[in-house]
Design a protein that fits this description.
Elements (H helix, E strand, L loop, with lengths): L5 E3 L3 H4 L10 E5 L4 E5 L6 E3 L15 H22 L6 H16 L2 H19 L3 H8 L9 H12 L4 H6 L1 E6 L14 E3 L17 E7 L2 E6 L1 H5 L9 H7 L1
Antiparallel strand pairs: 1-4, 2-3, 5-8, 6-7, 7-8
Helix pairs in contact: 2-3, 4-6
Length: 249
């Protein structure tokens, strides 16, 4: 099987759930240019060779990760369709597939990669500046620290893959349908965390009681995940760490 050069960080099959019924295209708003455009799902939210691992050992398939993601997308699409229209028939394996899909869709987008690179860069600089010789060299610009974008992203993926799954699996899941003549929208980072105490562009932690997970499944269906503690006691501060409360509360 030939691997496409365009590696989508938001799947085409997912984007196809948000087509404008009048045009059969995606209505896309470009924040930077502040303009609306019409696109086919296959023409957006991709980067060329985004998941290609050039540093893999000789003889290895450099596109293994991209093929694994394609597999996940295909199986996830089937499980999510069942979640929308017939959730009572979901098997344990299908639920596990949805959890993995949610987790990967959260961490695989460029916005998360950019955040990861910033974290790695700040960490390395914090160590470097503890040594006077290196600190002086950095200040005089006789040396500089360079982070490989792609390798940093893969390190982040390896470190965080599966981290969100235990949280997602214990949260209360709710499905909302858009009223007639209204539609849900999606973004280039579809799995969003929201906490009223950390408005965008801040990133709330998933373990905070007040953090909810929002994932539009289609233009008519929205999945919302909440920590059960918040439903049991709405007076809990949104910044309360769920694990701390469980152990000490």
């Amino acid at each position: 099987m030939n691997t496409p050069k365009k590696h989508h960080y938001v799947p085409v099959c997912y984007l196809s759930k948000f087509l404008n019924p009048k045009t059969g295209m995606l209505s896309v708003y470009d924040i930077k240019k502040k303009e609306w455009r019409e696109h086919k799902p296959s023409k957006i939210m991709f980067l060329k060779h985004h998941n290609r691992q050039e540093w893999a050992p000789e003889g290895s398939d450099l596109n293994t990760y991209e093929k694994l993601l394609s597999d996940l997308e295909s199986q996830g699409k089937i499980a999510i369709e069942k979640l929308i229209y017939n959730p009572k028939t979901l098997s344990g394996d299908e639920m596990a597939m949805i959890l993995t899909y949610l987790d990967m869709q959260r961490i695989r987008v460029p916005r998360q990669a950019k955040m990861a690179k910033e974290m790695i860069t700040n960490f390395i600089h914090s160590i470097a500046y503890k040594h006077s010789g290196i600190a002086n060299a950095l200040k005089s610009k006789s040396i500089k620290i360079v982070i490989d974008d792609k390798k940093a992203r893969f390190k982040y993926l390896r470190a965080t893959q599966g981290v969100h799954v235990p949280y997602f699996s214990r949260m209360k899941w709710s499905m909302f349908n858009a009223p007639d003549s209204f539609s849900f929208v999606t973004t280039d980072s579809p799995v969003s965390f929201f906490n009223p105490k950390f408005p965008p562009p801040s990133e709330p932690g998933i373990s905070l009681v007040g953090t909810i997970v929002l994932f539009p499944l289609s233009s008519k269906h929205l999945l919302l995940l909440q920590h059960p503690e918040l439903q049991q006691d709405p007076s809990i501060p949104p910044t309360k760490n769920r694990l701390f409360r469980k152990i000490c509360g």
